[in-house]
Automatic annotation (TrEMBL):
PANTHER family: COLD SHOCK DOMAIN CONTAINING PROTEINS (PTHR11544). Gene3D superfamilies: Nucleic acid-binding proteins. InterPro entries: Cold_shock_domain, CSD, CSP_DNA-bd, NA-bd_OB-fold. It comes from Paracoccus aerius. This is Cold shock domain-containing protein. Residues 9-74, 102-167 form the CSD domain.
């Protein structure tokens, strides 16, 4: 699909993306040069990073410097075998992930080298543990301090932990009511009731 400005809708796997450098590349499935994915284009989609091997659909445009993505349309996490990304999440959690409400949260801090960080759900004082493998499983490579995200939360062996991370935009597309903080107390209790076996 091409429009009059030379833009073309393409899909491909992320070869690599480095948030520090501010760019990465998408493998061109039609052959030829890789497609540049700039951090600003990714930020316009509501993300600060994307995991390697994620499938992205973008509007691409040829430029003097080569092929460049001008807009991200969708991001699908890397293909998984369906198993939980970490031992603290059993496969039952992964199978019922969509049943968990999506919560609005902000990243407190995240250290990719250490492999973890924390977020805070709006209106809820407890920290939520973020594991780097859960991020990768969700299609992220890294998170920035203060970044707004959507998270599905379970009660883990050491407290609340994210079972899935989404971009803020995706979370609101799935239904604004699921991201509302109005009934957060009831919703946190729902999470604890629904996933109580995770902590056992």
């Amino acid at each position: 699909m091409t429009d009059e400005k030379g833009l073309k809708l393409v899909s491909g796997l992320v070869k690599w993306f480095d948030p520090t450098k501010g760019y990465g590349f998408i493998l061109n499935e039609e052959g030829g040069a890789d497609i540049l994915l700039h951090a600003n284009v990714l930020r316009n989609f509501g993300r600060s990073s994307v995991a390697d091997q994620s499938r992205v659909t973008v509007w691409m445009q040829p430029t003097q410097r080569g092929l460049q993505a001008t807009e991200v349309v969708s991001i699908e996490p890397p293909i998984s075998d369906g198993s939980a990304p970490i031992a603290d999440l059993d496969n039952g959690v992964i199978e019922h992930l969509e049943a968990l409400p999506l919560r609005p949260a902000r990243v407190k801090w995240f250290d990719k080298a250490k492999g973890f960080g924390f977020a805070n759900i709006f209106g809820h004082p407890d920290d939520v543990f973020l594991h780097v493998e859960v991020l990768r499983h969700s299609g992220f490579a890294d998170l920035s301090i203060g970044e707004a995200i959507g998270i599905r939360v379970v009660e883990g062996p050491r407290g609340l932990m994210a079972a899935q991370v989404t971009s803020w935009d995706r979370g609101t597309e799935q239904g604004g009511s699921s991201l509302a903080a109005d009934h957060l107390g009831d919703q946190v209790q729902d999470i604890k009731d629904f996933m109580a076996h995770v902590a056992e």
